[in-house]
Design a protein that fits this description.
Blueprint lengths: L1 H15 L5 H12 L4 H8 L8 H37 L18 H15 L3 E2 L5 E3 H4 L25 E3 L5 H10 L4 E10 L11 E11 L4 H16 L5 E8 L2 E10 L16 E10 L1 H7 L7 E7 L1 H9 L6 H4 L2 H4 L3
Parallel strand pairs: 1-4
Antiparallel strand pairs: 2-3, 4-5, 5-9, 6-7, 7-8, 8-9
Helix pairs in contact: 1-4, 2-4, 5-10, 7-9
The chain binds phenylalanine.
């Protein structure tokens, strides 16, 4: 019996060395320490042994059991350590590596230009007023002194919708009527930025959608001098204090008198170059004193009130400032282009 126990012990300990993972360990435990293992059978047989042999064999059986349990615990721990070492090696992190740089987003050049325009007019006391992009024929033309069939409507190639009388605004000027009707009879000083749409042949200079920033001031004593002063100051803040400006007579049905403002070409300093078509000047906005008919349509009595309005294209301003020679770059979303700003 004692030899048998020795044999069990030897066999168990040697087979334990072959257990390489948890599964094998569990199988080993069942085989050598489980209910029907030879060792447990030996315990069962103790009772049937002659009385004088029992203590010695019992003691030896207990020794073997303890030895196997201790060996099992040791082997489990060794395997656990090995697994840990392995994962530490395999999943090693080099905490001294520099972090991966986050890719920084940037603002679109038109957004940058718009924000600069907002800031300049904000400093001069103008509020931003947003109005709708889908307009009625009445607001886009009629209330701006262009009744149906008025030839001036041809200045704006229009996207009409399938609903008669509903169109995509061709300029931000219809916002003038919305502001006036909302503010009347209070004085007004607002800018109206937003998208406009025109049914154009797309080219390097023309897109079917673009931004405009409209300006409108209405009050009791507003003069053309205010218009010139505000726009000249705007040009200096936008393009630099030295920039020279000039006003040229023009025509819009909703302003009277009307003027366009040019700035001295900043590329050639007024000498004449390709960008300014050898004139030395760049046209940057249309403007004028709000037409009495338009004031009345907004609810203001033109005998008591006057006002000025202007409209500029941020795309055109950005193209001039950054010397972008094709307007289509602005909406093409080509990163090579956008990353330059
Ligand atoms: N709405 C005009 C345009 O789109 C610009 C403009 C606005 C002119 C306000 C005068 C006054 O061309």
């Amino acid at each position: 019996m004692l030899e048998q126990l020795d044999h069990i012990e030897r066999q168990a300990l040697s087979s334990l060395q072959n257990a390489q993972d948890d599964d094998a360990l569990q199988r080993w435990k069942v085989a050598y320490l489980g209910r029907s293992s030879p060792l447990m059978k030996a315990f069962d047989q103790l009772g049937s042994l002659p009385k004088e042999q029992r203590p010695a064999i019992g003691r030896r059986a207990n020794q073997v059991k303890q030895a196997l349990e201790a060996a099992f615990a040791e082997r489990s721990e060794a395997l656990r350590q090995a697994a840990l070492q392995h994962s530490l090696q395999a999943e090693r992190l080099d905490v001294s590596l520099p972090g991966r740089p986050l890719v920084r987003g940037r603002l679109h050049p038109i957004t940058q230009t718009l924000r600069q325009i907002y800031r300049i007019f904000g400093d001069m006391g103008f509020q931003v007023y947003r109005s709708r992009e889908v307009e009625s024929d009445e607001f886009n033309f009629g209330l701006l002194n262009m009744p149906p069939h008025h030839p001036a409507r041809d200045m704006w190639d229009t996207f009409h919708t399938t609903t008669p009388g509903v169109l995509l605004r061709t300029h931000t000027s219809p916002g003038q009527i919305h502001v006036m009707r909302e503010y009347c009879p209070e004085p007004i000083r607002v800018i109206l930025p937003g998208m406009c749409y025109r049914y154009e042949q797309v080219s390097a200079r023309k897109e079917t959608q673009f931004n405009q920033v409209e300006g409108l001031a209405v009050g009791k004593e507003i003069t053309m001098g205010d218009l010139k002063g505000v726009l000249t100051d705007f040009a200096r803040r936008m393009f630099g204090q030295q920039v020279r400006t000039r006003f040229r007579a023009s025509h819009f049905p909703f302003t009277e008198p009307s003027a366009e403002m040019d700035i001295e070409c900043f590329l050639c300093g007024g000498q004449g170059c390709g960008v300014c078509s050898y004139s030395g000047w760049l046209e940057i906005l249309g403007s004028g004193m709000v037409h009495p008919v338009v004031l009345r349509n907004g609810g203001y009595d033109p005998a008591q009130y006057s006002g000025y309005a202007f409209g500029m294209g941020p795309e055109r301003i950005a193209m001039l400032r950054y010397q972008i020679e094709d307007i289509r770059y602005l909406w093409a979303n080509d990163m090579r282009f956008l990353e330059q700003f």
